[in-house]
Amino acid sequence: MNNVAFIIPFFCLFGYWAGAQKTIQPKGLEYEYKGIVYNTERAYEITLHTNGFAAGMNFGKLRTYYKTFYYHLGLGYITHPLEESQNKNLPGEPPIGNSRSFRFGKQNYLYLIRAGVGNKRYKSEKAKRRGVAVGYNYEVGPVLGILRPVQNIYLVPNENTGLKEPVFITYDDDPELFLDYSSIFGRSTDLTTFLNSSIRPGIQARAGAHFALGAYDQYVRAVEVGIMVDYFGIKMPLIVENEQHSNSPIFINIYVAAHFGTRE
After folding, report:
1. What topology does CATH give the domain 34-82+106-148+191-263?
2. What residues in the chain have per-residue pLDDT under 50?
């Protein structure tokens, strides 16, 4: 009887102690990475495309964690698909030096100033701490085309001495000599031809697939692949036209762009 009276309180005390131990046992911490909500995004962009290259900046407003509205401003350069660089590798005398590479028949350089507004959306959610978010983007806006005349150096016989002397010629200066392949010495590096540039307005648009590493993090790291279009309404005289070769008012290019920047 005494033993029973002792055992019953013992088990009651043990049960209370066990329950208390179960209650205060520390659990494993469960981390949940919710991240920080950012409002703005500024990203630099380097683009390579089928017939040229570009660089620019995007200023974005994050409307939701998967949707960004942005403004774009950039500079670019476009070539004609038929352009081909070559060099005669001729020795020269001061002040022209050795011959430089040239593109026979190239009439104008085309530089572009692009502006636009666009949207970027992610269709897949990135893992909490790693992974790639996949989405798409589209953009449209104005473009200014700057046509700068190509100037080449030609070796032309002096009327008095008969010796060949360098002459700097653009297509508008002398169309016949400009296309005289045998007289070309090389490309001129004279930047004063910018003073004779002309401006052509147009529209530009692009759309692509967007692949972002850390799409919801502080730093922008992404690659974009897509198609871009520049349209000017009239032909852009990049090369001298003939029966086989012509210019176009529209430029369609496949592009790959790298983005890097920050969010705040």
Report:
1. Porin (2.40.160)
2. 1-34, 127-128
